[in-house]
Input
Amino acid sequence: MQNKLNKLELTWIGKDDEPLVIEPRLLLYTPEYSFGEVETSTLPNGKPWPGNMLIHGDNLLALRALEQDFAGQVKCIYIDPPYNTGSAFEHYDDNLEHSQWLNLMRPRLVILRNLLSEDGTIWISIDDDEQAYLRILCDEIFGRSNYIETIVWQRAYSPVNLKKTISRSHDYVLVYAKHLTKDYSLNKLPRSVEANERYKNPDNDPRGVWKSTDSTAQAGHGTKSQFYVLSAPNGKQHHLTPGRCWVYTEEVMNRMIADNRIWFGPDGNNVPAIKRFLTEVRDGIVPQTLWPYTEVGHTQEAKKEIKALEFNTIFDTPKPERLLLRILQIATNPDDIVLDSFLGSGTTAAVAHKMGRRWIGIELGDHAYTHCAVRMKKVIEGEQGGISKLQNWQGGGGFKFYELAPSLLNHDKYGNLVINKEYNADMLAAAMAKHQGFTYEPDAEMYWKQGHSSEHDFIFTTTQLITAEMLETIHSQLSEDESLLICCTKFQPECRNKIPNITVKKIPKVLLDTCEFDHDDYSLNIVSVPVIEDEECDDANSEDYIYSDDDYNSADEPNLFNQ
Output
């Protein structure tokens, strides 16, 4: 207890509850909302890349559905979660509202971290309402040592005069790495025309255009050899100002002067400056933490982009395509996978597509159909809004639309969990493979080889009765170094432990206590508010006594798990 009290961490109502064990759902391909020519390939882990994915459904369930195949495969995650301004929690008091938001974010961030590649980064848009708390939460999940920076984005270009105090003009983007090693680096930003125009050639140096930089540094970082009186070629003596030292030792400085790399002005009397040639500058510019709207756009620009797509509904706080362009320039390269689990109007997917990145987008609301799918269709057809002209975008590519499958188990009229009647044989087999940690990949020759966890371990799911004779037949087809897990709804008692390398388990009994079933919406996971018990009302004979499960005998009601 003492150790817990001494630990510095963010706490809130519901944090210490039992962690959610989310059901690994299937993703059902929906061709009527898919579009274009989808390019499939192979992921670094050897599993297939199905093509760009647009997923409709609760993002916590969707992330869990992706986890088995995509863990460690996503190079960049960008999310723009609800900012917890109070509008979504108007019926809750402040501390519960805050707890609700943290309980919404925490399990999603845990899975998102698992999906990141070892060199991947996550970028999270947030404002001042939760920025400080999100930072601490991310420190816990990603590790404080993996924090990179907090970007300040100027989202507004003019004040809101209706504000009674101070008009806020910025939001934040928190940036974390999966593993921030000593040699870790991000991409440089492309050099702009404006940046290159700062380079001139007033002395007609044959090495080309250059820019002057300070030849002194802070004295506290200098050695004894960096303190001296510098003699210019014309004989003028240049003395250091207090608190400064020369960048180079006297010996090196003299070599630089002889090589015409020190500029003393057109008449030779100026303070010496170092000549930095454009040809010697790095390929790009190191990103800074302050992103003005002139460089990455603002909220009004984003709304205009959405409006230009002819949507009836405009989001309150959309992100401009230029903002996502910069993030993906820094964090990704062509063909890298980008994921956004709060897709909104589809900006992340649109920008990633135009930049030649692979992408996965998840959206719960109906605008997955009305906005995201429609927007991506326009992108594929070559729409010219946003960053299209900057990227010379002409269209192409495609995406697959997916729906989350319903829960594998749902409750019958007696409250028991039973196999969902919406599942056909193939769906059941695929779902059981996912639940048991197998890759669903039916063998063309051996009907019982429906999936594998290795070259020698297989799974077979069936609703048929498993008999001893069937086991003997399958066993005759198994190699000595192979094993098989059979999941079925019923089997003969003699099948249990009959063959050493064949394990038989009953559905749905095998799934009991593995995860939470029959829950389709985790968008607002209500936590229990602590209750102060009334000591005067703890008598079991009281009229208000509530029977526990132990007091109630349900043996007379059917329970499919015990059949």
Observations:
- The first strand starts at residue 27 and ends at 29.
